[in-house]
Design brief:
Elements (H helix, E strand, L loop, with lengths): L1 H27 L7 E4 L2 E4 L3 E3 H4 E4 L4 H7 L3 E4 L8 E4 H12 L1 H4 L2 E2 L3 E6 L2 E4 H15 L6 E8 L3 E4 L5 E4 L8 E10 L5 E20 L14 E7 L15 E3 L14 E3 L8 E7 L4 E8 L8 E6 L5 E8 L2 E5 L3
Parallel strand pairs: 1-7, 2-8, 18-22
Antiparallel strand pairs: 1-4, 3-5, 6-8, 9-11, 10-14, 12-13, 13-14, 14-15, 16-17, 18-19, 19-20, 20-21, 21-22
Helix pairs in contact: 1-3
């Protein structure tokens, strides 16, 4: 009976303390009825008992002194083992707050889907992780042309560090290209040793202005200035290396619709010799030089080796393109 009486008195004293704190806060300012507190998705405690201030942050019209008093309210026992988080789901968290705080104060809580509490160490919340990713990628994209936009981060809601002296950074990005980017967080101890890695990612849009087909262009058409326009495109969705607009003359190797980006792989240098054209075929030997008329059997650029047909002997041979009207066969014997 005595033990039951003691438990009753302790619970009654706790309830009275909460009621008193609410009364103090209310008397401090009538506007404090519009305040609430947000329970964090992850928190670190260092004592045997979890305090309200360990797991929650206030917002709204509440005096600093009032929250200082609220933050000292004792809740449930802390995890026994250091560095081993304890998870509490939203329903259990709601019930626990009502049990330890009472319905009035508990009703001011904005709850996460769950909370993880670790004894010892340190926690890095998602907003800090997001800032780390943004800063790292921004630094890596400074040398890229175009407008870089980072979105769709897939990062943890929080990361617990196993020791309060450890730090968290991001593994340097070797190359950054438009599209999905892999991110690796690293927990590093005071000696510079990597304790563990946590993976994440983000999507990088890179908007640039590139040459595009101004009108429909058929395969093998010459790419002339009147057929080219420039449009803003997202490199993240382009499957190829955009043409830089230099060089030529070129012809198009595939049909391009109006507005279609022009890729390097879509172009080939216009051949100096066309299939079916007549050329001078020169035979060069150590002591002989002979020129005959031949027919090109394939297109050819300077330096290419193409088949040609000797119109006198009707024989087909392979010769090197010298210029727009000459091919040569050299025999150094």
């Amino acid at each position: 009976m005595r033990s039951l009486f003691v438990m009753f008195m302790k619970r009654a004293a706790l309830c009275m303390s909460v009621v008193c704190l609410l009364a103090v806060a209310t008397s401090a300012s009538a506007s404090e009825a519009r305040w609430h507190f947000t329970v964090l998705p992850a928190a670190v405690v260092h004592d045997d008992i979890v305090l309200l201030g360990d797991i929650a942050k206030p917002s709204g019209d509440i005096a600093d002194k009032s929250w200082e008093n609220f933050s000292k309210i004792k809740l449930w026992p802390a995890p026994r083992k250091y560095g081993r988080p304890m998870a509490i789901t939203r329903p259990k968290l709601r019930n626990a707050l009502q049990q330890y705080l009472g319905g009035g104060l508990a009703s001011k809580a904005i709850l996460p889907s769950s909370i993880a509490i670790q004894r010892g160490g340190k926690v890095v919340q998602k907003n800090t992780l997001s800032q780390m990713v943004t800063r790292t990628v921004s630094n890596a994209t400074q040398q890229l042309d175009g407008e870089a936009v980072l979105r769709d981060m897939t990062i943890p809601n929080f990361i617990f560090l196993r020791d309060s002296k450890n730090r968290l950074d991001i593994e340097p990005l070797r190359t950054v290209q438009a599209g999905r980017i892999g991110i690796r967080f690293r927990e590093i101890d005071p000696n510079g040793q990597i304790v563990r890695r946590v993976t994440g990612g983000a999507f990088l849009d890179l908007w640039v202005t590139i040459p595009c087909a101004g009108t429909p262009i058929n395969r093998n058409d010459l790419l002339t200035p009147d057929k080219i326009t420039h449009e803003r495109k997202n490199l993240a969705y382009l499957r190829g290396e955009p043409w830089d607009g230099r060089g030529g003359p070129y012809r198009v190797m595939r049909t391009l619709g109006a507005g279609t980006p022009i890729f390097e792989g879509d172009l080939e240098t216009v051949p100096v010799i066309s299939k079916g054209s007549r050329v001078d075929l020169i035979f060069k030997g150590s002591a002989i030089r002979l020129t005959v008329v031949a027919k090109a059997m394939e297109d050819g650029r300077i330096g290419d080796i193409i088949p040609v047909r000797n119109l006198q002997s009707k024989r087909q041979v392979y010769a090197t393109v010298l210029d727009d009207s000459t091919v040569v066969i050299e025999r150094n014997r």
